[in-house]
């Protein structure tokens, strides 16, 4: 537990822990007043705690005198600094990470779509595991919320991916840190499963209820660093007589999810299905839920088949250039595609 | 109901599975047909969909120690007539492992249309716990939609909204009662490969030497969790001059997509005792 190593008073430490702050990263996105409210302490005391925590993080952002004029507002410089220092969730496929600028970024809503069997759920499970990679290994050391609307989450598969991830961490340890004592935080595969909060929703009302409940839940579990919804679409493709209602409900959900992503500094990953759309005299594949939904997510990634290889394509993103990369689904989870590995070796 | 109740924490370490009644086929599916989700078997007629379904009806009654669910099963059939004599024949091979007559714990109901199925699904809430049903088989889902819908955008939209309704209800019950749900689906021939998107592990599916794909299209493919494809190949044997030539049918099964299975396949045979995988 990182909090227990901070040089603060025992009562402050106790208050932090009982409010659910266990890691430094859970403190990183907080304002002093928010923390003060949360712990029922004075604002100066809260600022003191954040200063200590940020010093530990090496950020020192409170000492620059760049405190916001309006509470909650930030300067562009701060935002840039924060974004550069924020850790992304790796996909375990370096080609995919490269086009994504390092992985799935926190504070943003990322939508991933593709035909059945392309590997949407596989990627989602991989992210739920990878978000837990400890900070010592360059990860976030967070927890995951997995909202399953289709019943495709299989614990066997999650365990398999977790085992491979734990194995990779061990190898990393033995390769790079031969002369040092082994990293703290080696994890058992079973622990990975315990850090996934799994919600199974069977109707669209349940789906909306869970999303409304998330804010309270994450408030109590501040280590949650990714929220995955697999899929956002399924319950909204049954017959909605009133399409305007559907658009409103979806829009409301999107707003709440964006707010969560910003407020708690976490990544939101939405899976979507594809459908055919009649365009220019022929049927073309497009993501489901229509044009207005297309605005809901910050980034859109489309997964597709190219010959016998799986590819991911960045369809929409404010900061990434559109590019595509191949990946493969293996027993260990998402990895680089085999043909690409060969090419790299030759070079 | 409270939102908190939707959270499943900590997660169980395994999904309960229903044996297929054959160790090789069980190995292919890593233990069998998973509960709490929908498994679809796609095949052209005469490949063994119904044979496998019948076998599952009996296997569900086996005790958990033998890979079964020690529960009753419900069979909804839209293809007529129901092969009762074959089921009776198969039941002899299961009777020694079961306390009562296995046929007493198989409930059979005909289906006449998609709307009929939609009317029936809410009643499962009552039937399933009362009869201790743990397996529902629908043979076949495609037959319900053949013919009733025209090939116009409006009709196709209505059809796919019915797909999602059926799937959602089935998934709801599967989750609520821990059911294994198995659906069978037919195939359609592929005329022009360019206009149908690739779904799953294989670029194209072949059966009896023809290119085929699962019936009901892309939107239905979103309605199942696992899709298996069974196909047949005719193989010629005997002299080349065509005098005493006979053909032998070989049958195969492959995982098209599944959240927990890699792309794998195996050969199987249908005998008097049922369906069995062949280890080659």
Automatic annotation (TrEMBL), chain A:
GO terms for molecular function: ATP binding; DNA binding. The keyword Secreted does not apply. One of its GO terms (cellular component) is nucleus. One of its GO terms (biological process) is DNA recombination. Its main location: nucleus. Residues 85-274 form the RecA family profile domain. Keywords: ATP-binding, DNA damage, DNA recombination, DNA repair, DNA-binding, Nucleotide-binding, Nucleus. It is found in: Nucleus. Coiled coil: none annotated. InterPro entries: AAA+_ATPase, DNA_recomb/repair_RecA-like, HR_Repair_Mediator, P-loop_NTPase, Rad51_C, RecA_ATP-bd. Belongs to the RecA family. RAD51 subfamily. Involved in the homologous recombination repair (HRR) pathway of double-stranded DNA breaks arising during DNA replication or induced by DNA-damaging agents. PANTHER family: DNA REPAIR PROTEIN RAD51 HOMOLOG 3, DNA REPAIR PROTEIN RAD51 HOMOLOG 3 RAD51C. This is DNA repair protein RAD51 homolog 3. It comes from Penstemon smallii.
TrEMBL record, chain B:
It comes from the Eukaryota. GO terms for cellular component: nucleus. It is found in: Nucleus. InterPro entries: DNA_recomb/repair_RecA-like, P-loop_NTPase, Rad51_C, RecA_ATP-bd, XRCC3-like_C. Residues 14-187 form the RecA family profile domain. Gene3D superfamilies: P-loop containing nucleotide triphosphate hydrolases (3.40.50.300). One of its GO terms (biological process) is DNA repair. SUPFAM superfamilies: P-loop containing nucleoside triphosphate hydrolases. GO terms for molecular function: ATP binding. Keywords: ATP-binding, DNA damage, DNA repair, Nucleotide-binding, Nucleus. The keyword Nucleotide-binding applies. Pfam families: Rad51. Signal peptide: none annotated. PANTHER family: DNA REPAIR PROTEIN XRCC3. This is RecA family profile 1 domain-containing protein.
């Amino acid at each position: 537990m990182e909090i227990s190593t901070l040089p603060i008073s025992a009562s402050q430490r106790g208050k932090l822990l009982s409010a659910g702050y266990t890691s430094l990263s859970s403190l990183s996105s907080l304002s002093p007043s928010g923390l003060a409210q949360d712990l029922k302490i004075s604002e100066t005391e809260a600022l003191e705690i954040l200063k200590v925590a940020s010093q530990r993080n090496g950020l020192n952002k409170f000492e620059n005198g760049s405190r916001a004029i309006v509470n909650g507002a930030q300067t562009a410089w701060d935002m840039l600094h924060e974004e550069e220092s924020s850790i992304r969730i790796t996909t375990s496929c370096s080609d995919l990470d490269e086009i994504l600028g390092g992985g799935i970024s926190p504070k943003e809503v990322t939508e991933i779509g593709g035909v059945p069997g392309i590997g949407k759920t596989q990627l989602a499970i991989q992210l739920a595991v990878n978000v837990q990679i400890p900070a010592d290994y360059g990860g976030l050391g967070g927890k995951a919320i997995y909202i399953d609307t289709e019943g495709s989450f299989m614990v066997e598969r999650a365990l398999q991916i977790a085992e491979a991830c734990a194995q990779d961490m061990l190898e990393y340890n033995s390769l790079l840190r031969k002369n040092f004592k082994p990293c703290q935080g080696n994890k058992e595969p079973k622990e990975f499963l315990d850090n996934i909060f799994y919600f199974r929703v069977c109707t669209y009302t349940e789906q909306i209820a869970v999303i409304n409940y998330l804010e309270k839940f994450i408030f109590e579990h501040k280590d949650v660093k990714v929220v995955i919804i697999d899929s956002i679409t399924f319950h909204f493709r049954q017959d909605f007589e009133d399409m305007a209602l559907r658009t409103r409900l979806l829009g409301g959900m999107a707003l709440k999810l964006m707010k969560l992503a910003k407020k708690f500094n976490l990544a939101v990953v939405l899976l979507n299905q594809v459908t055919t759309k009649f365009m220019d005299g022929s049927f073309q594949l497009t993501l489901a839920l229509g044009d207005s939904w297309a605005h809901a997510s910050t980034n859109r990634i489309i997964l597709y088949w190219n010959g016998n290889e799986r590819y991911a394509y960045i369809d929409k993103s404010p900061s990434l250039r559109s590019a595509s990369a191949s990946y493969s689904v293996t027993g260990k989870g998402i990895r680089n595609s085999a043909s690409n590995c060969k090419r790299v070796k030759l070079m | 109901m409270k939102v908190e109740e939707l959270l499943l924490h900590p997660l169980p370490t395994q999904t309960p599975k229903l044996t297929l009644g054959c160790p090789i086929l069980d190995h292919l599916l890593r233990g069998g047909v998973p509960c709490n989700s929908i498994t679809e078997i796609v095949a052209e007629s005469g490949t063994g969909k119904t044979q496998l379904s019948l076998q599952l009806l009996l296997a569900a009654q086996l005790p958990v120690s033998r890979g079964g669910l020690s529960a009753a099963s419900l069979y909804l059939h839209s293809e007529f007539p129901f092969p009762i004599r074959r089921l009776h024949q198969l039941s002899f091979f299961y009777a020694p492992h079961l306390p009562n007559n296995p046929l007493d714990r198989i409930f059979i109901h005909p289906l006449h249309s998609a709307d009929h199925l939609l009317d029936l699904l809410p009643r499962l809430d009552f039937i399933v716990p009362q009869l201790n049903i743990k397996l529902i088989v629908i043979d076949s889902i495609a037959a319900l939609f053949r013919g009733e819908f025209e090939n116009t955008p409006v009709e196709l939209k209505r059809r796919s909204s019915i797909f999602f309704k059926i799937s959602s209800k089935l998934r709801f019950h599967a989750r609520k009662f821990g059911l294994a749900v198995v659906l069978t689906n037919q195939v359609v021939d592929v005329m022009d490969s360019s206009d149908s998107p690739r779904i799953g592990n294989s670029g194209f599916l072949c059966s009896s030497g023809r290119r085929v794909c699962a019936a009901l299209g892309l939107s239905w493919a979103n309605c199942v969790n696992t899709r298996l494809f069974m196909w047949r190949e005719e193989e010629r044997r005997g002299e080349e001059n065509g005098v005493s030539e006979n053909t032998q049918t070989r049958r195969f099964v492959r995982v098209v997509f599944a959240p927990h299975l890699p792309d794998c396949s195996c050969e199987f045979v249908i005998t008097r005792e049922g369906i069995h995988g062949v280890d080659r």
